[in-house]
Amino acid sequence: MSNQLQNLTEAKPDSSALDFTHFNDQGRAKMVDVGEKPLSRRTAVAAGRVLVNSETFSRIRSGGIKKGDVLTVAQIAGIMGAKHTPDLIPMCHPILMDGINLELHLDEQRLSVEIRAVVSCDGRTGVEMEALTAVSAAALTVYDMCKAIQKDIVITDIRLLSKTGGIHGDYCKE
Out of 48, 81, 96, 152, which residue is the most buried by the measure of CB atoms under 10 Å away? Predict the structure, then answer.
């Protein structure tokens, strides 16, 4: 084992690591036990955008992308992404979501695909990561479907807009 790896595995947690809920007493990663938390209604709204050039924008709008209807495929990919969040993000709990709604629209002024996801559940932990994953998967799908005609597509501004429920209360950036 390399010295660096050995130092990491033998490292004692510093005091700042003790403040994080995803570390055990040895300073190693753990999944938080949410079994004692009360059920509450939880929602999360996330957004992002995909910046394209005018040719790509026109082809998305007209249906001229060879792989198919970009917005519909990206919408489905976003829904699937939300459902697979715990498979992608190691410390996320599997959540029985009540609803996943993705809206994609074209913004001609920005030459962008605007993406918004709303995820909801009645649960013991929030759905922020599911909403962010939905937006990310949708944005990556737009890129994948358009990369043959444009390589310099930019995925940007993926962010949490709001969340409700849980012991930490509501958050709103909208």
Answer: 81
CA distances from 82 to 18, 57, 79, 111, 121 (A): 30, 26, 5, 26, 12
The whole-model pTM stands at 0.85
Token pair 């595995």 is at which residue?
Answer: 9
Q: Are 93 and 115 in contact (CB under 8 A)?
A: no
Confirm if 97 and 84 have CB atoms less than 8 A apart: no
Query: Percent of the chain having pLDDT more than 90?
Result: 72
Catalytic residue among 19, 69, 87, 144: 144
Spatial contact of 127 and 95, defined as CB atoms under 8 Å apart: yes
